[in-house]
Amino acid sequence: MRVLVVEDEKKLGSFLRKGLTQENLVVDLVHAGDIALERLLTHSYDAVVLDIMLPGRDGLSVLREMRRQYLNTPVLLLSARGNVNERVEGLNLGADDYLSKPCSITEVVARVRALLRRAAGEHATVMQVADLSLNVVARAATRGGRKVELTNREFALLEYLMAHAGRVITKTSLCEHVWEHHFDTGTNVVEVCMQRLRRKIDDGYAKKLLHTVRGTGYALRGDE
Ligand code: CA
Fold first, then answer.
1. How far is it, in rounded angstroms, from Cα 108 to Cα 179?
2. Strands 217-220 and 210-213, how do they pair?
3. With left for phi above 0 and alpha for psi between -120 and 50, is residue 34 left, alpha or beta?
4. Phi (first) and psi of residue 206, to 5 degrees
5. Do 1 and 173 form a contact (C-beta atoms < 8 A)?
6. C-alpha–C-alpha distance, residues 127 and 165, integer Å
7. Which of 35, 70, 153, 155 has the maximal Cβ count within 10 Å?
8. What distance in angstroms lies between residue 12's CA and the mean position of ligand 1's atoms?
9. From 51-60, 132-141, 182-191, the region with the lowest mean pLDDT
10. What is the 76 CA–ligand 1 centroid distance (Å)?
11. Residue from 66, 45, 67 nearest 160 by CA
12. Which of 16-20, 40-44, 87-91, 134-138 has the highest mean pLDDT?
């Protein structure tokens, strides 16, 4: 899952990036509102942490423009303490949640995870595809009741696939949402990780869940 953090206080920004990265999220950090909006309109994100007081364009204006352009990415607003009007305006403009500053990194991370779960649908904490289940809070996966040991990257990959179960996911989209975009997509990093994941969840089971869609990408399917 890829998150955009928009925060001009450099120190807070890098703490937020660190906290979210530790949760296996892919994080992009920008320091100005106009840059944030441009990113949002050209890249695909699963959630946004948006400070209100920003250079370039303020957070509320970024939010207004996002919603005007039908960009429904969940937004967590960071507002100055005690500014009720700001928060009310933010919620009216379509923010999904807000926190007052100063805020704890742990709380920001927990709220972002909650937004991501909500966006992934009502299967909130536990996602299920056939007999494969993934508990995103306990960070545990099982198939047919047997524990599947996953690395952080494999977990992130499976989480993304399960959140989009039944749909074909392109390699590009996996690169964007599960990996830092700085890597060369010409390498076979995705294939290798996918191979390991497939071994762990499908080997020894008659019913295969992870499918390669030739020339397009991958799909996790439990209904065939
Ligand atoms: Ca600020």
1. 21
2. antiparallel
3. alpha
4. -65, -40
5. no
6. 10
7. 155
8. 10
9. 182-191
10. 14
11. 45
12. 16-20
H helix intervals, 94-150: 105-119
State in Å: Cα 126 to ligand 1 middle.
35
Between the CA of 45 and the centroid of ligand 1 the distance, in Å, is 21
**Closest alpha carbon to 167 in 206, 120, 203:** 120
Question: What is the Å distance from ligand 1's center to 31 Cα?
Answer: 9
Distance 62 CA to ligand 1 centre (A): 13
What's the CA gap between 131 and 47, in Å, rounded? 28
Two tokens, residue 91: 């919620």
Give the per-residue SS3 of 58-90: CHHHHHHHHHHCCCCCCEEEEECCCCHHHHHHH
Tokens 């536990």, residue? 126
Look over the chain and give the mean of its residue pLDDT values, rounded to a whole number: 89
Q: Is 202 exposed, middle or buried (0-12, 13-18, 19+ CB in 10 A)?
A: middle
- 52 CA → ligand 1 middle, Å: 6
The pTM of this model reads 0.66
Distance CA 24, CA 113 (A): 11
pLDDT tens track for 118-164: 877 654 578 889 999 998 878 899 999 899 999 988 999 999 999 88
Which residues lie closer than 8 Å to 155 by C-beta, 6 or more apart? 24, 134, 139, 141
